[in-house]
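TL;DR need structure tokens for one chain.
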Amino acid sequence: MSRLIVISNRVSAPKAKSAAGAQGGLAVALTAALRENRGIWFGWSGNECEKFEGKLDMERHDGVTTATIDLERQDIDEYYNGYANRTLWPLFHYRIDLAEYERTFGSGYERVNEIFAETVAPLIEPDDLIWVHDYHMLPLGKMLRDRGVKNRIGFFLHIPWPPTRLFVSLPYHERLVRTLLEYDVIGFQTNEWLESFLHYVEKELGGTVDEDGWIEFEGRRCCAKAFPIGIDFDEFTEAAEGETAAEANRQLSRSTLGKKVIIGVDRLDYSKGVEERFQGYERFLENNPEQADHVVLLQIAPPSRGEVHTYQEIRERLETLAGHINGAHADVDWVPIRYVNQGYPRPALAGFYRASRIALITPLRDGMNLVAKEYVAAQDPDDPGVLILSRFAGAAQQLTEALLINPYSTDEISEAISQALAMPREERIRRWESNYANVRDEDVIWWRKNFVAALKGE
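>> reply
TL;DR here they are.
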């Protein structure tokens, strides 16, 4: 049986099931596949070294082999903090106004991808399947081909693909897409992102695309498809029934004194629409003073990418905005926003989700958004909460019974909160049952099986 070689920017050592709640989404998504296929997970350790000399650290964790390298400070600054997070991330999330096009960023990005290719190539055996992940690794397939790797190589993009009219603002955009076409399978979260990519291939490169997503370009043939990612449904729902979740539920319920909780959980990022969420919630407080002190917004926003200045700025703006809203509307026994800058393990989040009458998820652009799916999975079937979801999240194409809103409209957010608070139990159950069926049936196992089957050519 062929092995699976997973390559991503960062490697998260798989944990035993009892500790799985501390792992991130990508780690949970890939661990089972790696165990089943005697896999190797290769990537950056997250650590810095004085000088990269090809050292590879291989370890075995709970049935999975990890292989990691350290990177030099210049490489981290140019490849990760630079091109990946200051050029590609804002552009792919439609924030062309924030994208920085520095030549050193691009050269650092290509240099680190070359380092990845040079280091991982000797680990690859002839029958291995190779699965590359995300925007950090767009050109890696081409670099592996240049080193004689003839294996089946797949690529999955976890974030949106921008429309052609935005993507062409990227210097050397054509060269970057040409490298992508060296993969055998190119996966996207939704049909919208897939269609944007195929439009570029046809209009800018002159490639041909058939109705099944097969691309032909300069004698090469590859397949592009949508593979919407899900949550680890069984693991998450089991955690939601555990004692950690129950205690988190009790803690939040006790501390809010019977008030209805609106919850938001997001990594601190300008793409998540947290500012717009706060402003929409403030509009609700202004428009519904008779309901104001019966609700509380709990916003959990763990900080991220602290070395990138735009993330420092968004944290400062959110703290100022939360303080403004609390100062204008709070009473001696009620604060309208609880703004928390720390992360929690998923079992605790499951308890917070179940204790919340509403999930308010307002990304301005999001590849998928697994928080929406986790919220649905955590609900009490007899008394479920209501999901309010941005129509610009990939999850909106699957969770169609959520209250779908335009996150740029404070009035739409305000009206959706009012609708959710007033929604009869029967309607809440009907909407939840439909969304729950999708979360259950199209989970992470379904996602990876579909992608790996396509990579195998099945």
